[in-house]
Specification:
Strand content: under 5%
Largest sheet: none
Number of strands: 0
CATH topology: Growth Hormone, Chain: A
Helix content: over 70%
Structural class: mainly alpha
Keywords: Membrane, Transmembrane, Transmembrane helix
Order of helices and strands: HHHHHHHHHHHHHHHH
Protein name: MFS transporter
GO molecular function, one term: transmembrane transporter activity
Organism: Stygiolobus azoricus
Shape: globular
Pfam families: MFS_1 (PF07690)
Radius of gyration: 20 Å
Number of domains: 1
CATH superfamily: MFS general substrate transporter like domains
CATH class: Mainly Alpha
């Protein structure tokens, strides 16, 4: 691929990723605040509506997008991008009843967008170039997650939670336009049965993402409510805290963009260690400073975990297989987003939000032990490449 084509590819990926992730994250963090303090939902109901958003994404990602052929998938992708732009401003007019339908529609539209951007980013044949582009893609995710909450924090100093959805609408419109420029990989005509779930790279990606997405889903749904209810901060401060969290995530992804990881295992275990430390700090925090410090630490594994999972898939699947693998992987992430907020909301009702975060620690440690069984196969791919290079 020449430099001009590469730069065009890079520009489209970064721009659309920024627009979609910034607005999507805004939805995930603002809906819990809106339904809790404007509609007076219980903790359990807050968890369930967060799950509804992920359920819609799971349906289109895992059950529809992964089964479509290239031409149909491209049409579905563009249609979903346009639908997302139409649905986002509807949150401004939502009621305690319609918010459930609007959240489901937003989730359904998002399910076809992110997996296909990932697949597009992974089209390059050269492993190092591909992994560098994937790292830049995840870097764009992090930049959007810093800029989005920072923008929302500024908006909330003068406007309401409902108004935020209108301010983010231009990003959804931009994403709908950019969807026309996303390319799709050519698929082989012969039908080859692919068992995604048995691939050790896929197992590594899933277990790795579970170690962080479980606490992250809980933080998205209840972190803001915890800060408002127990630390008595404003809505603007809540979104500023999320921006702080995503700043260290951004730093981690800058590191991966500069130095694509040779060993997924080493980076994964470092991320798990920081996740446990961050959760312990939330459990023991008694003021805003300690809570903010815990979020700063938790941002680093957020920045590391997702790129490591994407890289695990790109190393162990052929280009024509990656759509199915990425769609299935994204669907697993959405299942986490369905189950965790629902269960976490129920637990928070019983023991309180702070202790709910503490109960996640044993789960992370068990997953860490399970990860050891599969991650070695992903790193073996790189070792094989190194051995295959002729010595001069």
């Amino acid at each position: 691929m020449d430099k001009k084509a590469y730069l065009q590819m890079l520009l489209v990926i970064v721009s659309m990723t920024f627009a979609i992730r910034a607005s999507n994250n805004m939805i995930s963090t603002t809906i819990p605040l809106l339904v809790k303090y404007d509609f007076h939902f219980t903790q359990t109901e807050v968890g369930i509506i967060s799950a509804v958003l992920s359920l819609g994404t799971f349906i289109t990602s895992g059950l529809v997008n992964s089964r479509l052929k290239t031409s149909a998938r491209r049409k579905f992708f563009i249609t979903s991008s346009v639908l997302y732009a139409l649905v986002l401003p509807l949150f401004y007019f939502s009621t305690p009843i319609t918010i459930w339908v609007i959240s489901a529609l937003a989730g359904l539209s998002l399910g076809a967008i992110m997996p296909n951007i990932i697949t597009y980013a992974g089209l390059l044949e050269d492993r190092k170039a591909r992994e560098r582009l994937l790292s830049i893609y995840t870097l764009a995710l992090s930049i959007s997650l810093v800029a989005g909450p920072a923008l929302e924090s500024e908006i909330l100093t003068k406007f309401t939670l409902r108004d935020v959805f209108v301010f983010f609408e231009p990003m959804a419109i931009a994403a709908a336009i950019l969807s026309l420029f996303i390319k799709f990989p050519q698929e082989e005509k012969k039908n080859v049965k692919l068992n995604v779930l048995s691939n050790p790279g896929f197992k590594t990606a899933v277990i790795n993402i579970l170690t962080y997405n479980i606490p992250f889903s809980a933080i998205l749904a209840f972190g803001g409510i915890y800060a408002v209810t127990y630390l008595h901060v404003t809505y603007s401060t809540v979104t500023a805290l999320f921006s702080l969290f995503f700043t260290t995530s951004l730093l981690a992804r800058i590191y991966l963009s500069v130095r694509p990881p040779q060993s997924v295992a080493h980076h994964a275990y470092a991320a798990i260690s920081m996740t446990v430390i961050g959760l312990i700090m939330i459990l023991t925090s008694i003021n805003l400073f300690e809570f903010a410090l815990a979020l700063l630490i938790l941002g680093f594994p957020h920045g590391l975990t997702y790129p490591l999972s994407v890289i695990s898939i790109s190393r162990t699947f052929k280009p024509e297989e990656r759509n199915a693998a990425n769609s299935s992987f994204f669907a697993v992430m959405m299942i986490i987003g369905i189950i965790v907020p629902s269960v976490a909301g129920y637990i928070a009702e019983l023991v309180g939000i702070k202790y709910m975060f503490g109960l996640l620690i044993p789960v992370i440690l068990v997953l860490s032990a399970l990860l050891r069984r599969y991650v070695k196969y992903v790193d073996e791919v790189v070792k094989t490449e190194v051995k295959a290079v002729p010595k001069s």
